[in-house]
Amino acid sequence: MTHFSWLYDGSIVGVYLLATMIIGIMVRKYVGKVEHFLVAGREMNVYLGIASLAATEFGIVTCMYTAQNGYQYGFAGTTPGILQALAMLIVGVTGFCVRPLRDSGVMTIPELFEKKFGQRIRWAAGVVIVLGGLLNMGVFLRTGGEFLVTVCGFDAKYLEIAMTLLLVFVAVYTILGGMLSVLVTDFLQFVVMSGGLLAVTILIIVKVGWGNLVSTVQTNFGAGGFNPFVNDKMGWQFVMFNALLNLAVVLTWQTTIARLLSAKDTKTGLKVYKGTAFFFVCRFLIPGIWGIAALAMLAPGAVTNSLHAMPMLLSMIVPVGLMGILVAAMLAADMSTDASYMLTWGSVIYNDILAPFRKKGTSEKRGILWNRMIVGFIGIFLLVYGLWYPLKGDLWTYLGVTGTIYLASMSVLLVACCYWKKANSWGATAAIFLGALFPIAFLVIEQLPATAGFAKKVGPYYSGIAAYVFAGIGMVIGSYLKPSSKQ
Amino acid sequence: MHTLWLVITLAALVWYSTITVYVAIKGFADIKSMLKRLEDQSKA
Questions:
Q1: What is the number of helices (H) and of strands (E) in chain A?
Q2: What is the dihedral of CA B9, A298, A311, A54, to 10 degrees?
Q3: Is the pLDDT of residue A14 over 90?
Q4: Is A214 within 8 Å of B2 (Cβ atoms)?
Q5: Do A187 and B28 touch (CB under 8 A)?
């Protein structure tokens, strides 16, 4: 039984959606150049950057997997968020890699790689970035739809219709206004999303009780629910994989980098990093608490899929009125994520993959048209892929593994590009190949019945760590093997 | 360990509430100035 009321909660959601649409479409008149469409003319300032980055990095899918982490691992499930916050803060303070990246004036990371490794590596880097990114975001829609259906109590048959409508809605303002629409709507979405998240968290802590949350974790997981190193399902390999993953995310994740490159200068970009760092603890901890509350409140037999535990709890305890704010907050979170993902991965397709095929002197008008078409195609891909891919294992691990397809090699390439003089195209090629090999192999053997058992035995963490280690080794060996131009 | 998680949770709630209000005010000013600069650029 859900508390969603079409009259009260539906009105709140409707007003929010209408306001977003109007604001998103209004700023399209400022888009005159490709640079406006992709990086908002590099006019983004600190607080807009913080709002936009926070809103983008928190979607319904984020809420679902972080709550699932809380449900499955207790407070220890927050570990990836703490590691990401640390990585964000360290990179923001030191400017490691991101300072030379922003100073170079490029619009995408592969564009920087061309200066060091040549045009072919730029193209190959673009391909793996898009491959990893699209596989990653492929599960967003279905997961978001599952949340809405469970919380609002809709019939499951409406899931596809609801997610299609939401995507069309987001695609309209993203196609028209590009990064400018994304930034402005992100701001509204950040405010609505944050208000909803805080209100529901306070409600849950008051209703369930802090002592009850702690004792639930203690009863179900023992010390492992508070410390990832002593958790049977986590251990050092989980922490190590997530440390590498989150550092790579901070350095090369397309939606994060897009904020750095949209900032009006390098200093502003670094301030956005420092200002957003602690948000990543909240991003894992707040829904994690919701997941722990679901573990405390729901009977074990009532939950058949751990991913649905948190929305089941919310449907039962969030009252009318607050339910509308919660659904608006979650829609806000999802829309900002979908819009930014479509735009920023589209920017790599246009700027890097299609670069060799573009005629020189392409007009700004034609460039914007191309970008709009690419965003539209990504939207269609999301619909199709999101409907047929069967998700195995937990969601955070799937996202980590698919992201690693490019995160491992791109982070190695970026570090080498910025700080290692001997790095060259052979090393870059080896790093891209080895970085993608392990996660892709893991995804394939996980899906095949004959090898699924082996995949389970190896686990995603070792294959993830191997991707980073071998991408680094590939870069070093490949770079030393290439004969120098003097020889 | 239990106290540590209580402290982190309280810090997260206080920080997030504060930053939401602060960013809501300052971010709106950022949007206005960004659109103004873009408008000036298109006129120039």
A1: 21, 0
A2: 10
A3: no
A4: yes
A5: yes
Q: Round to the nearest angstrom and report the end-to-end CA distance of chain B.
A: 60
Residue where the block lists tokens 């490794």: A117
Identity of the amino acid at A366: R
Structure tokens at A56: 């983008």
Which residue in chain A has the smallest CA separation from B14?
A: A198
**Contacts with A160 (C-beta within 8 Å, 6 or more apart), sequence order:** A145, A387
pLDDT at A487 over 60: no
Spatial distance between the Cα atoms of B14 and B7, rounded to a whole number of angstroms: 11
Are the C-beta atoms of A33 and A202 separated by less than 8 Å?
no
Average pLDDT in chain A = 87
On whether ipTM exceeds 0.90, the answer is yes
Residues of chain A with C-beta less than 8 angstroms from the C-beta of B13: 198, 201-202
Q: Which CATH architecture has domain A8-393?
A: Up-down Bundle (1.20)
The predicted-structure confidence for A40-79, as pLDDT tens digits, reads as follows: 888 888 999 999 999 888 888 889 889 999 999 999 999 9
Q: Where exactly are the structural domains of chain A?
A: 8-393
Question: From CA A54, how far away is CA A31, in angstroms rounded?
Answer: 24
Residues A282 and A262 sit within 8 Å (Cβ to Cβ): no
Cα-flanking dihedrals φ and ψ of residue A108, to 5°? Answer: -145, 165
Q: How many domains does chain B have?
A: 1
Identify which of B6, B20, B31 has the shortest CB distance to residue A48.
B31
Chain mean position to CA A476: 29
**d(Cα A174, Cα A185) in Å, to the nearest integer?**
10
By Cβ distance, the residue of B8, B19, B38 closest to A43 is B38
Cβ within 8 Å, pair A285-B39:
no
- Domain that residue B14 falls in: 1-44
Residues of B in contact with A78 (CB under 8 A): 8
What are the pLDDT digits (tens) for A74-112? Answer: 999 999 999 999 999 999 999 999 999 999 989 899 999
Instruction: Give the pair of three-digit tokens for residue A330.
Output: 């979650």
Structure confidence at residue A387 (pLDDT): 63
The helix (H) or strand (E) run that includes residue A377 is helix A364-388
Write the DSSP symbol of residue A308: G
Annotate A403-418 with DSSP letters as a single string: HHHHHHHHHHHHHHHH
Q: Could you please report the per-residue DSSP string of A378-406? A: HHHHHHHHHHH----S-HHHHHHHHHHHH
Interface size, chain A vs chain B, as Cβ–Cβ contacts under 8 Å: 93
The CA angle A314-A315-A319, to the nearest 5 degrees, is: 85
